[in-house]
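U., I forgot to send this yesterday:
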Amino acid sequence: MIGILIAGIITFYFPDDLTVWASDHRFLSMLVMLITGIPMYVCATSSTPIAAALILKGLNPGAALVFLLAGPATNAATINIVKNIFNTRALAIYLSMISITSLAMGFFLDFVYDTLGVQASAVVGQASKIFPESIQIVAAAILGGLIIFNMALNLKQPVEHAHSH
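Result:
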């Protein structure tokens, strides 16, 4: 819920011309997203609407991917656990690898978007138009069938009661 709230705030308050700044400063925009994502306590579920709102405002998809990858992988809880279980050196290696990999994937995604000539903000909210309706119906039927099958399996299995001896 917090991710949706933050996405709404971004959509309302951020300027629509973020594209100009982000396209002129791709590496810097990725670094900003990396630095923003690391201290935030976000999971993948809450970071997705935030990234979508930023893309809608014109952020390059590579920078949004950096936020999506680095944010959940480097939240404060994870950093604390890695440091306590291992040591500070392991934490530095962990953060470095997450940062390098996120930036590399961000550059690669921007390369793919540039090569294909796709404008990311034009496809946000257009997922239903990617596949024909017939494929959507078949996929929905398969998913529905799998859900019903799984529920039927769970209903057939006897529930084991906890016994205390």
